[in-house]
Write a structure and sequence with these properties.
Two copies of one chain form a homodimer. The first copy, chain A, is built from six helices and eleven strands. With 210 residues, chain A is α/β, with parallel strands linked by helices.
Chain lengths: 210, 210
């Protein structure tokens, strides 16, 4: 059965992108490159981004194990419009997803079919509709909610997530886009299923208790 | 050489106490009891609180290992005035510290010598002065900065910490006292030294890189 899995890197002070983020200056905010460095260094990420078979992971086997499984299981993605706008230029003609991507937005655009199997569809009926469409597109695979913070916290608040995977990087961003911007709901129950320390990042996998 | 170690429980949404905290209603804020449940359940905490030898830990050996070492190594504590005011009544005549405790405050009180070896001293010259006095009092042991969030983040910002130990509880407090209330300094570098998943809590030990 398809699982809906949020997956995001977060700083110790709770930010998923640094300050002053924008497509032309700092797509990930100031310091955001460092937040994602552990990911960009992975062979399994580079293989996913290039849409090719994953080679041998020599450097970071723990992170590779965590992320390789995740990429292999994912059949469709959900992202926010801000993430789309900030990433679009950097992603270029062949974005790193290689799967259908549903963009949650109040300002829908026509669908975009990119090279390498990434199809962007814009959903203006809220996060639940975007997740529903992603589940339909994922077939027997899982749905990844990849960010930003607002989409992930909205999905958690709406009871749409099965799993919340945080990659905690021991750095302080000092500002930017918080993972939890609005008050969270204390009645949401989670359980930590797996914790792994790798180089420069701690992976924490939470199951949402339903 | 004496190490200065901050040690605190934090919710997934970054709070160290829940909303509506106050000495007469919720000393730890709404939900704060749950945040600390993993600790209160430990034999090593109960032994520390009672000022007696630690017995066998049957239930939570990982947390007991993490906290038992910490208690054994600690010779003096630093806390904030808010934590003192909220805890004072609950702690009673024999507070759980059993060591000198330096309270950072703008409104100093006369020293208080309590049963069981807890001496409260009130320091109105800032966190650095409080840590300096705690180091002198700790002898060959370590200094624990036990909270709240403001004292810990001030110590981190002032370069006073050697170690930041976070006990991350997979719950959402939805509000309350944040660990990082004010903007943090991105130039502060940390490295994750140890990560342990125990029941209901993930222990993450960071070294501050100097």
């Amino acid at each position: 059965m398809t699982q809906v899995i949020a997956d995001i890197s977060v700083s110790l002070d709770g930010f998923v992108a640094g300050p002053d983020d924008g497509p032309d200056r700092h797509p990930l905010g100031i310091g955001g490159e460092r937040l994602h460095r552990w990911l960009f260094d992975l062979e399994s990420w580079q293989a996913q981004a290039d849409g090719r078979e994953r080679g041998e992971e020599r450097e970071h086997p723990t992170s590779a194990d965590i992320m390789g499984d995740f990429f292999a299981r994912t059949g469709a993605a959900v992202i926010g419009r801000r993430m789309f706008d900030h990433g679009e230029k950097a992603w270029g003609d062949e974005p790193p997803f290689h799967m259908p991507v549903f963009v949650v937005t109040h300002r829908p655009l026509p669908p975009r079919r990119m090279s390498g199997g990434t199809d962007f569809e814009f959903v203006d009926e809220g996060v639940a509709a975007a997740v529903r469409r992603a589940i339909a597109a994922a077939g027997s695979k899982d749905v990844a909610v990849m960010g930003g913070g607002r989409v992930i916290s909205s999905c958690l608040a709406a009871g749409l997530l099965d799993e919340l995977r945080l990659h905690v990087v021991p750095m302080l961003l000092g500002g930017g886009v918080p993972l939890f911007a609005r008050p969270t709901d204390p009645s949401i129950m989670l359980a930590t299923a797996r914790v792994e320390l790798s180089s420069g990042v701690t992976h924490i996998v939470h199951r949402v208790i339903k």
